Amino acid sequence: MTYPKGMGGAPDLRALWRKQRERWHRLPDQTRRRVILAIQVLVVVVLAPFWWGFAALVAVFFALYWIPQDLAIPTPWRKIRVRATITPLVALTLAIVYPFVRGGIDSLPGVGPWPQMDTAVIMTVYAMMAVGLNIVVGYAGLLDLGYVAFYAVGAYTAAWFASVQFAKQNVHFGSVGVGPTVPGIHISIWILLLLAGIVTAFIGVVIGLPTLRLRGDYLAIVTLGFGEILPQVARNGDSLGGFNLTNGPNGITPIDPPGFGKTLHNATGGFLPDNYLAIANRNNAYFWTGLALVVITVFASIRLRDSRLGRAWIAIREDEVAAAAMGIPLMRTKTWAYASGAFFGGVAGAFFASFKSSTFPNDFSFNISAFILSMVILGGMGNVWGVIVGGAVLAYLNQEGLANIGAKLNSNFGWHLDVPLYAPGIFGAILVIMMLVRPAGLLPSARRRAEFEEGVHDQPLYDAAA
Question: pLDDT by residue (tens digit) across 435-466?
Fold first, then answer.
């Protein structure tokens, strides 16, 4: 059997993958369904002796797979697709109950323990930022390498108005856990989340205006420049004309915690916490709050995608000249993309600053922008669910996943390998493998999947010459 050759005579992995996929699709439908069912049953049977709970979870998602994709329930407003509705609801339910069941979860062989609650909070933050960047990159096709700037603006917005940074002022409005005599501006974190989003959206417009006439590499370079400027402003903002705006390298700390106050706490029978820092399982409360913000972000992103504005973004991504010829206002539409993506980045930054109770200039390096962009690429540009999966997976690996895997390898094989030290190389290898095997991402959107499949028969120039 001969395999397609790439440059240097090495096997062309992408061509090989396409060849095997074509062979699979040529099989009769009944044969393919039987093979898939056999694999699913085998996976559940293998997992059951080690962890019956996880095996049951896998079985539930396998059962969702067998729901017909075109099955829909008619309603007076629209048809509700059963599979597309039930799957996110099941995933959301499992995420909600995760803090309750995590303590009894056994680790999978060779994988390590499941995410701790502080890691789960960070996963929700990165999922929010990845969905926000997906609006700019996945919907509108604008390569943004400075997304960390929006994250920084959101974090500092929360820090300015929920700390003692401006000690000469004494403003208190809805804050919790702060005495009335404490100096500074102390506004409720719930208000600051919205304020951070609005302020960051405005900054997104300011950053986006100089880039509206740029494309490709030039656009990436300009956004990269803005992504480097704002962290430097934060680092040197302790003396702007004699005014201490950011407290320089020392950062701003502490930042007020979220909470609902004693009135709502008593009215709900203690269900809503008065002060997140005053409860024993504070990370659980932060996780559920982050989960709620992710749900809001996903809902808004999907509604934007299906709106008139979202279709205009996709048209610009596909062909900017054709979109302009059809009457789409390019400047205004691109500006809305920057503002919308920046809004969610700012909300994520404000929430993360409140969770850490601090913000520092070193938190906003270029690596964060590249990391979030990698989440979008890994999950599948343009698909909200794929981006969430990519963000959660890479955030877990970065926080504790690689350390857990390294500890498991060292204990089983007697190695002395510090796996997190090789994190950049590991993430780079993951992206390279994804580009070779599944260039559209883990869960690509239907449109991007069609785009890639339409070009599978194209022959590279060097193969034609050979």
Answer: 887 778 888 777 777 666 665 444 554 454 44
Please provide the distance, in angstroms rounded to a whole number, between the alpha carbons at the two ends of the chain. 19
Of 59 and 312, more confident: 312
Task: Look over the chain and give the mean of its residue pLDDT values, rounded to a whole number.
Answer: 83
Contact predicate 324/333, CB 8 Å: no
β-pairing, 79-81 vs 162-163, is unpaired
Peptide bond connecting 254 to the previous residue in cis, omega within 30 degrees of 0: yes
| Cα–Cα dist 60/90, whole Å | 9
Gap between the Cα atoms of 207 and 258, Å rounded? 30
The predicted structure's pLDDT at residue 200: 94
Percent of the chain with pLDDT over 70: 88
pTM of the model: 0.85
Task: Say if residues 234 and 156 touch (Cβ distance below 8 Å).
Answer: yes
Answer yes or no: is pLDDT of 266 > 70: yes
Structural domain boundaries in the chain? 106-465
Instruction: Determine the topology of domain 106-465 in CATH.
Output: ABC transporter involved in vitamin B12 uptake, BtuC (1.10.3470)
Distance CA 466, CA 461 (A): 9
